[in-house]
Design a protein that fits this description.
Layout lengths: L3 H18 L3 E3 L2 E5 L7 E7 L2 E4 L2 H6 L4 H13 L7
Length: about 90
């Protein structure tokens, strides 16, 4: 089985691809992230003090940050610079 760091690195890469290619929407603090593989599927990501939570199967099974949460992280980072510009 893969080590946790390898799993997270794979998820970071996939999350970056999702952030680059999909339209991620923030609706009242819930981020809607389209599936990378299914056209009709969207996952809900919420950010809390404890960390990100996602409705995908991967997050529910492993309880670690998934590619959808990383996509939200990249989207936020891309959208808001330190000086407040986008």
């Amino acid at each position: 089985m893969k080590q946790i760091q390898e799993l997270l690195q794979e998820r970071r890469q996939r999350g970056l691809e999702i952030a680059k290619t999909k339209h991620i929407i923030n609706k009242n603090g819930i981020w809607l992230v389209p599936s990378a593989t299914s056209l009709n599927k969207t996952y809900q990501v919420t950010l809390t003090i404890e960390g990100a939570k996602c409705t995908c199967e991967d997050f529910r099974e492993r309880g670690i940050m998934c590619k959808h949460a990383f996509a939200v992280e990249y989207t936020i980072t891309k959208a808001l610079n330190k000086d407040g510009s986008t």
